[in-house]
Amino acid sequence: MKYCKNIFIALILIVSTSLLFSQVKPLDAELTNYQYPFEVHFLNFTSQKNDLKMAYMDVQPTKSNGKVIMLLHGKNFNGAYWERTAKDLSDKGFRVIIPDQIGFGKSSKPQSYQFSFSQLAENTKAILDKLKIDKIIVLGHSMGGMIATRFTLQYPEKVEKLIFENPIGLEDYKTFAAYQTIDQAYQSELKNTAEIYKNYQLKFYYDNKWKAEYQPWLDLIAGWTVHPDYPKVAWNAALTSDMIYNQPVCYEFKNIKVSTLLIIGTRDRTAIGKDRAPKELQPKMGQYQELGKKTQQQIVGSKLVEIENVGHLPHIEVYHKFWNALYEFIK
């Protein structure tokens, strides 16, 4: 009887996994078959001998308050997940610029490109130059926080205020985790599936509680894994993982001089390379309830809003708490 019960449970798991895969819509490298929430524009430019196009959304307010805010996405995301934030900002009079970084979303996936935060910051500035925008508020989530740091330090005259939302890079991952080559990272990326991504998100983003509103942000990256273009995407993912590991920004927070807000979900334990760190060090990585406070102390005059029992994605998991902290800072 027990044996039959185990077989039944195993069959349920197999069927559930099959359904998960069957529901994933294949997405090409530049998401041409996926519609973003706002009109998409492209900046065409040449960089490192590559002819590239960088996608961005430019959301205009009905009644402008004269301010512009730029929203920078994380590594496992693209600009689309800012939809609700952008709508509310626009309703409050803000013009909202939402880029897809090169290597992400609807932007080009170059196969020969030296990714650096300085390069991504320069690419991002090129969009603002095209739009003739001189002053902005910058909000960066996850990897977007690292880009926001570099952008602010590289172009301080352009940044009015800076907001971090659970940024990665609050610690130097090289001091914990062993190095992996880009080729090794690429092979690891090629193994990703919808199930692997979902398990990762449940662990770090949502505390093993899945809701229907989380599904679109899983489908966007899972869709790549079932399309013939996936090796292109996986290669860019490997290159950007190497960038995150080898280009820490945590030593430069002390140089930030603009008004800064940190919005930190304290349950977050995201850390690059955690699986490659010694077992005794792994629990010490990604301790956001400590890293938020440490980072605030490094940025003179900065403000910290901690959201208890929230993971890596406050603007998805507990939107109203995220929004209240954001709007109070920029209104």
Stretches with pLDDT under 50, minimum 5 residues: 2-22
- CATH topology: the name is Rossmann fold
CATH superfamily: Alpha/Beta hydrolase fold, catalytic domain
Looking at the overall shape, the CATH architecture is 3-Layer(aba) Sandwich
* Percent strand: 15-25%
Assembly form of the protein? single chain
Specify the number of helices: 11
**Could you state the order of secondary-structure elements as H and E?**
HEEEHEHEHEHHHHEHEHH
Average pLDDT confidence is 94
Count of folded domains: 1
Shape summary:
globular
Helix content: 25-40%
Brief summary:
By secondary structure, this protein is an alpha/beta fold.
How would you characterize the overall build of this protein?
It contains eleven helices and eight strands. By secondary structure, the chain is α/β, with parallel strands linked by helices. The protein has a single domain (26-330), classed as Alpha/Beta hydrolase fold, catalytic domain (Rossmann fold, 3-Layer(aba) Sandwich), CATH 3.40.50.1820. Strands 1-2-4-3-5-6-7-8 form an eight-stranded mixed β-sheet, with helices on both faces. Helix 3 (117-130) packs across helix 4, helix 5 packs across helix 8 (230-246) and helix 6 (194-204) packs antiparallel against helix 7.
Characteristics:
331 residues, alpha/beta, Rossmann fold, 8-stranded mixed β-sheet, 8 strands, globular
Task: Furnish the topology, listing elements before pairings.
Elements lengths: L1 H21 L17 E8 L2 E10 L8 E5 L10 H9 L3 E5 L17 H14 L5 E6 L1 H12 L4 E7 L16 H9 L3 H11 L10 H11 L4 H17 L12 E7 L22 H11 L4 E5 L6 H4 L1 H12 L1
Parallel strand pairs: 3-4, 3-5, 5-6, 6-7, 7-8
Antiparallel strand pairs: 1-2, 2-4
Helix pairs in contact: 3-4, 5-8, 6-7
